[in-house]
Amino acid sequence: MLTRLTTLLRDLHDNLRRSEQVYMVIVSLVIGLLAGLCAVGFRLLIQSLNELAWGEGQYTLEYIDQLPFWWKLLVPATGGLIVGLIIHYFAREAKGHGVPEVMEAVALRGGRIRPRVVVAKMFASGLSIATGGSVGREGPIVQIGSALGSSIGQWLRVDERRLRTLVGCGAAAGIAGTFNAPVAGALFAVEIILGDFGVAQFSPIVIASVAGTVVSQHFLGDFPAFEVPPYELVHVYELGAYVVLGLLAAIVAVWFVRVLYATEDYFDAIKLYPPFKTAIGGFVIGCIGLFVPHIFGVGYEAINEALNGNLGWAFMLLLVLVKILAVSITIGSGGSGGVFAPSLFIGAMLGGGVGSIVHSVWPATTAGAGAYALVGMGAVVAAGTHAPITAILILFELTANYQIILPLMVSCIIATLLATRLKEESIYTLKLIRRGIDIHKGKALNVLRHVLVRDQMRTDVRTVNRGDGLIDVLSAFIDHPGVTLFVVDAERRLRGVITSAEVRGVMDDAATLETLVVAQDLIGATVVPSVSPDDSLADVMRHLGSYRGELPVVDEGRIVGVIWPEDVIERYNTEIFKRDMAQEMVAAVSHGRHAEPIPTVEDASVAEIPVPRDFIGRTIGALDIRQRFGVSVLVVKQSEPGVEGGRLDAAPDASYAFRDGDVLLVMGSNESIRAFEVVG
């Protein structure tokens, strides 16, 4: 009976997989429902741990004030110790705020996240929040949902492109379930986690986000995360105050990022057993909480107080400083929790403080402090995450008031622009940069990183000498199909460029200027970037962002070729097609130890080859396989004792060391594959 059921389910799965759209809709729906349940379960877990630690499932500031001082010191310290033990012995990925780890998995590991992260992050972050750690629950639920989506995708053995989408589905459902905001959840996933608004992955993410919201509403009810007061824009001149708020939000957000990572560096430099560090961090949080209990936990109660104008401006500005310090200590010491809710807290206090001052000076033409607290929340989130669209939509969904959009857009966009000028990396990507990981390497531009200019440039470049007359220049333009002529000296050294704009200005008087104007006189003021033959087409693409004409290829000062934008775009499309086809083949590759080369596109083929003996124990990066042999390693099929057929690990990273029994799925030209087989 069990065998028949297993066979039936396998046949049903295979039939569904024949239609990608239907298959992804069903899988994303399942992930959305499960991630929504995780979001609900995470909140219930926090409530249970709250009751265990403090005696109340949802403690209030008034209740905390009544507790003896030793309790407020002992609970955070004990919680920090247990959190440190969970992270140290069960899953190191559960340390910190979680979102950078998901971004790293999407960009560099094809979306693969260990299944144990679901459990480790849930208990580590839940315990950290429940025992007073000054962190949020949004970052953890993003990592929990993403790990869930990744685990299901790996179990179903989907290819990397679909796996990344399923990771985004889990993240979207988690955020949507937490905030009761399905649109913001979907936008968070595509803007921050995936960084790609493509329709192919956006549709499943929206479905998962809606499913997560439905589950959350079923168990927790349909109500907003915050008690938002009525809002109105009193006077158009009030937008000036929101501009100032946006500028201040950017400065505060950048300062928050710097303090956070400086504190992390401080604790990392301490030579101590890691769980002891988190215990010390918890004890320090308890000391701060003796005087300012508002910093304990997520802080939603304090945010609601600011939104309703129940706090003084001086105290709110003080809370900005104290909260930044508390969050930095909690995460820097090795705790687990998100920075999204703390950013909302900091923004609410900053906006409330600014709003109180503005309203006291111009009471007739400005809204109350609560309105500024609301906009400040979005502005600090936008500045810290560099994701203004997500910030605007989250706050809009929380208020359901269209009048908030204009001030939100003003403050969030200004805050983001200034923050990106002050600090290039966001609070998420900076963590990866500090590890030596450039998140942009995971973008589609990466497919051109290994294509050299010398392999794509045209050598029939049309040049004119500096002393050539106007008629010669005009004739060259007529014969030359492009829009740029390159001016060289007698040794073919590049001296400048002439564009069609410069020529157009003298064509009407060509007969008069024939003997007066030479090529040197027509060189324009536009600075045209040049590239070398050993540069990559990824470098060319960056230049084409600011200059759309032909690019000269210069070697030791002499022009040796030209790169046309059309050629780069065509090669980009070809490489994307190759990559997508390779990923499709990875999902369907046979389990044999060797396969004949399978043609894909142009001169590229895919084949399975046993790992060469000389490669065993050496890493992909050290061998530099792509450059030495002209083939790309798409998959390493690892031989697992006791597991029939082995296990597929798609797109291994450069640090992977080959083992005896590995089989490589490689892609390259037929000639390169034959040469690589000889090595094996």
Separate helix tally:
28
Total beta-strand segments = 10
Q: What is the C-alpha radius of gyration, as a whole number of Å?
A: 29 Å
Give the name of the CATH superfamily of the largest domain: Clc chloride channel
Strand order of the largest sheet: 6-7-10-8-9
How is this structure best described in words?
This protein is an alpha+beta fold. The chain folds into 4 domains: 203 residues, Orthogonal Bundle (Clc chloride channel), CATH 1.10.3080; 186 residues, Orthogonal Bundle (Clc chloride channel), CATH 1.10.3080.10; 123 residues, CBS-domain, CATH 3.10.580.10; 91 residues, Regulator of K+ conductance, C-terminal domain (Alpha-Beta Plaits). 59% of the residues lie in helices and 8% in strands. It is built from 28 helices and 10 strands. Strands 6-7-10-8-9 form a 5-stranded antiparallel β-sheet. Strands 1-2-3 form a 3-stranded mixed β-sheet. β4 and β5 form a beta hairpin. α16 runs parallel beside α18. The longest helix is centred in the first third of the chain and has 35 residues. It is globular, with a radius of gyration of 29 Å.
Key features?
680 residues, alpha+beta, Clc chloride channel, CBS-domain, 4 domains, 5-stranded antiparallel beta sheet, 3-stranded mixed beta sheet, globular
Describe the structure concisely for a colleague.
This protein has helices at about 1-15, 20-55, 60-65, 70-90, 100-110, 115-130, 140-155, 160-180, 180-195, 200-220, 240-270, 275-290, 300-305, 315-330, 340-360, 370-385, 390-400, 405-420, 430-435, 470-480, 500-505, 510-515, 520, 535-545, 565-585, 620-625, 625-630, 670-680, and strands at about 465, 485-490, 495-500, 550-555, 560-565, 595-600, 605-610, 630-640, 645-650, 665-670. It is α+β, with helices and mostly antiparallel strands.
